[in-house]
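> call design_seq(struct)
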């Protein structure tokens, strides 16, 4: 689960982290009053969407030379003018794709006198099985570009979970970020607090970009991006109200109701597969034959007929889908259950696009017999390669 910047900062503030004062607003008429609550005289008006690159983004409804999704203002009246222009409009960034995201809330924050911009994130390093700090002196920039062009500027520090952030770890991070004076002193509390917040709330990502050194020499969290591990949500009922459904794909929301692993993509071939690895391979082979998957959808190893039906309905509800590939290897999952779920869904919503089905494994003969006797216009495939070629060809001839 992702949350907004203002929510992330409010959470980090409870852990004692240095965060500027700010107020979230949802309507233009709240803007001026929000600014007047802050010290000023410089304010930052920030679009709150679940995407990066907001400062360089462009609003669809505004002229090309209009300011982006993060703006500076020098008076409460200027804050209000910016809020009126930004709220309700669609912001397009590198991470939103061309469709963009509608800005439904803003964060009015007190300005900061910045001396240096740094990068800091925490994530789980799968190779070590530990939480790792990833830091760089190149904050405020595209960290992917830094990693590609100057990887030596990115330093990772793994944290021993039995010890936590030690003085040695802090010293290593301080050296990597070239901190001294007040900033180095602040680091002794800032980095342990970041780690504590990450672990205690089961985050999967905590990114502070930039972490700044202010003109007075102290550290401040200037921006914060937080994602929580959905598998740990049962432990954190207090975080559930932070979820903003308007920022999520409607199909992904529906899939979550049935415990389906679903991610919407930009292609036109819908995929229903069991097993994450097989789902990735299915998407790869679709791309190999010159098409693009419309989704990642893993129905899991032991899905019921109802779950399969729901998955198929979610795929067919996507207007971008021009063909569907069902690729099932029956281990725990039985092929006849898949076949029954597909038939039930088609009877309910209809079938207006080509459907290719590849079944293999447990009860494969029964599954194929069910499909063959259903009267559906199903294209059968012998293996994954055959299935991918058939669905790509079927979509291209439409």
């Amino acid at each position: 689960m992702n949350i907004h910047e203002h929510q992330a900062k409010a959470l980090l503030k409870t852990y004692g982290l240095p965060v500027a004062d700010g107020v979230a607003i949802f309507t233009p008429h709240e803007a001026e009053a929000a600014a007047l609550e802050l010290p000023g005289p410089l304010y930052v008006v920030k679009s709150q969407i679940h995407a990066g690159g907001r400062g360089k983004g462009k609003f669809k409804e505004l002229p090309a030379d209009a300011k982006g999704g993060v703006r500076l203002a020098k008076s409460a009246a200027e804050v209000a003018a910016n809020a009126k222009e930004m709220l309700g409009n669609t912001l397009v960034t590198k991470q939103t794709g061309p469709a963009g995201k509608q800005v439904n809330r803003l964060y009015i924050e007190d300005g900061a006198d910045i001396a240096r911009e740094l990068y800091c994130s925490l994530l789980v390093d799968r190779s070590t099985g530990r939480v790792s700090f990833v830091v760089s002196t190149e904050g405020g920039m595209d960290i992917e570009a830094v990693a590609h062009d100057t990887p030596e500027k990115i330093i990772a520090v793994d944290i021993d979970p039995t010890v936590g952030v030690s003085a040695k770890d802090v010293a290593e991070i301080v050296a990597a970020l070239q901190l001294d004076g007040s900033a180095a002193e602040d680091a002794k509390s800032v980095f342990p607090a970041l780690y504590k917040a990450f672990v205690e709330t089961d985050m999967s990502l905590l990114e502070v970009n930039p972490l700044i050194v202010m003109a007075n020499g102290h550290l401040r969290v200037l921006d914060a991006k937080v994602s929580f591990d959905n598998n740990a949500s049962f432990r954190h009922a207090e975080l559930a109200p932070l979820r903003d459904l308007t920022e999520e794909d409607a199909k992904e929301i529906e899939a979550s109701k049935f415990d389906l692993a679903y991610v919407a993509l930009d292609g036109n071939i819908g995929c229903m597969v069991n097993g994450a690895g097989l789902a990735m391979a299915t998407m790869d082979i679709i791309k190999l034959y010159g098409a693009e998957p419309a989704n990642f959808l893993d129905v899991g190893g032991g899905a019921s007929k109802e779950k399969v039906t729901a998955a198929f309905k979610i795929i067919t509800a996507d207007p971008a889908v021009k063909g569907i590939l069902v690729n099932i290897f029956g281990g725990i999952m039985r092929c006849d259950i898949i076949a029954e779920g597909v038939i039930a869904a088609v009877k309910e919503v209809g079938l207006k696009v080509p459907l290719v089905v590849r079944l293999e494994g447990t009860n494969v003969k029964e599954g194929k017999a069910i499909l063959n006797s259903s009267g559906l216009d199903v294209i059968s495939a012998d293996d994954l390669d055959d299935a991918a070629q058939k669905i790509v060809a079927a979509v291209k001839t439409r």
